[in-house]
Amino acid sequence: MLNDQNRPPKRLIVPVQPSLSASQPPSMAALPDLRGLLLVALVAAWLAGILLASLAALPLWPLLVLSGAAGLLAVLMRRFGRPAPLARWLTLSLLLLACLALGAARLTLASPVGDAAAVSVFIGRGPVVIRGEIGAEPALRERSTLLEVDASSLSLDDGHTWRDVHGSVAVIALGANGPYAPEYGDSVELQGELEPVVGAPAAAPISGASSSTEAAQPPHAVTAPAGIFAAMTFPRLRILERGGGNPALAWLFRLRQRLAQAISQSLPEPEASLLIGILLGLKTSVLRSQYALYQQSGTVHLIVTSGFKVTVLSGLLAAFATRLLGRRWAIVPLLAGICAYVVLSGAGPAAIRAGIMGALLVIAPRAGRSYNLYTSLAFAALLMSAWSPYVLWDVGFQLSLLGTLGIVLITPFLAAWLGRFLGRVPAGRMSASLLAVTLAAQLATLPIQVINFGQLSLVAPFTNLLAVPLLGILLVMGALIGLPGLVVPIVGAAVGWLGWPLLWLVYQIIAQSAALPFSSLSVGPLDIQMAWLYEIGLGMVIAWLLTRPKTTRPIEKPFLTRAQQGHRRRVQARWRLAAAAFLIAAASVTTLATLPDGRLHITWLDVGPGGQAMLIQTPAGHTVLLDGGDHPAALEEALGQRLPFWQRTIDLALLTNPRDGHLLGLLDALGHYHINQAADAGMLHPSAAYASWRAQLAQRGIPYRQIRQGATIQIEPGVILQALSPGPVLSEDEPDEDANALILRLTSPGLRVLFLGETTETTLGALMTNGAGLRADVAQIALPANAAPAGQPVLAELLLIAQPTLLVVTPTSASTRSTGPPAPAPPGAIRTLSVATTGALALAADRSRWWFES
What we know:
Largest sheet: 9 strands, mixed
Strand content: 15-25%
Radius of gyration: 32 Å
Number of strands: 30
Helix content: 40-55%
Distance between the termini: 75 Å
């Protein structure tokens, strides 16, 4: 008997299509080998039937009769036919015809064409009132929310009479997340006009009216998930009842938002949004604003759900469940965990496809069956298209399906070809495999990327070569930050401190790759026929590669002895230990470098043209945020750049003006930072945004203080904020927001700053007569774009009293970014700088002087 040392090495042979033997009969040699792939062929026919029905309206009952007849003939042919090649071919053809007819019948049954109760019939019929239930998790945008409302009744006469309808409506609603925002399961009432959806399949009607109505489609029709044909843009929305829908789904959706919030409170931006996208597939406002980076670098797949993520997380869950419950009972929590992760990651078509295949991967070995990727992919496509045939028009489903097929079919050939060039380089075979996977997915999905995104990344293979190997670690890191952060936030923050260097590295790889010259190629519109020709041609090339003899050479893989396996495990453990030590050292060094330096720092943040935000960092390390602008993503990025990565606390959040240009960013900051205290001057007639601000402060238990003229806030010894306006009683003589805006004066040993904010000339005039101290080194005011401070008489008079040496001009809520020269200097040769033209402006001061920071 041979021992391990004397055993000859085993060889791993890549299977190839055997060449035809001369001894085989010609008839038998021509037969297709469909063992294990029969389901693939039948599902392909089913999908082809759906596509065929989308090209022309087909009657339902003839399709069902044709399918039944073909299936019955196939059964009879199988039962009584002779086992000849012709009989086998005929049986297969009848089965394919039956599936083709069934697929066409399924789309015909789902199509709203000819259905008088379909909600899409009322497109172009004027104002309507719709009642229904929100059937999916709201998709948050920066200033709006996409809702999927399952309609149940509709009225054409302003609610006097109602009729039953069915179908979903895509609704673009104003506002974002908050205590008054609609949620999954809420019963709502919509008032507005129905519009067509962009990109609806040909089998779906744009309108139930005449062709003249179809020709009068509104130019602002919105996009929506596949299977939705009617939309409403900014309708009047009223919540009738809270808390409907499936309780389990509602709980998982809330858990998803809480996990995202736990991560965002443990990490700065943009690293927090990157990890949220990797773990949950949730697109935050920061991630949406930077989506172009991921497209140009070819890394969009990192921030959406994929089969790789499901495999990694199910593997971790399987190891834990098997150790805890044993192999026999581990399947129950494992399947439950996969289903939960699919919902947590958004329950999109790509997530559902990955979840179905992951579940089959778990079930197959326990049922005594081998796992076949082709049949599992076909089964997933069958289930999803049977539930909703319009999923075939979903971009995520198309990319997921074709990308998976491309990776499986094309990767071996590309890996073998690249291995010839990189095989002798250290880690060359691993690099060749990673490059091959990326290139295979990109080749398979090329037409879809061009049609839907208009961009083709040229650096994707090399970017993924650096980023993809770290994906598994980032998934585990996201779970370790989010789950403990739900219960003990300090634990999630501690893990976030250790994981931030790795996230920073991955983000820099993506950002720097996208910044390279010619990182992506902008492609014009691609005709759908050219896309079909490309995919057909690619399929023919793959078929030729699979059927030609000796497509790949045998790959020698020596057998590893137990000693060698132990040595490999020890080497891997050392690498993991070294990586952990690196992360700890990097986090420690970065933390020490960002500790308070004993100076006062004031930064006017560049948060876009619609508002203002200011950050104050005191010598002892306290942080004050004045206003937040109206672009939450811009504020999150600006704070991520200015605050240390480990700092997730803001000591004081001050709202100087309740306009959206000051408030929306602060509302978003409540979910990303721990706010110790909040303050404002109040509002006589609260707007919806201000009511949401006060409600969220109360909901989160944040201490709130209302400050008026004469109040002071001591941030720390020597650093004080004084309220100069408004008076004890809010004025109703002028617009509430500006007349009652909060005016502050900061005093510290080396710097005095007057924050005039966005106010009125009447308020400035009253400020000069109330006897308050106005002397300041720096003054700040919000003015419209290109407005000259010298053209504001009251402001010029106030500046003569305050005698600042620097005037900082920030945008007003209604202004637009200035592209012209800076405004003329005010009287007294005061230096004027505009944030709209210079970008973020930072000052620093010690006990004796102040200066500009680079």
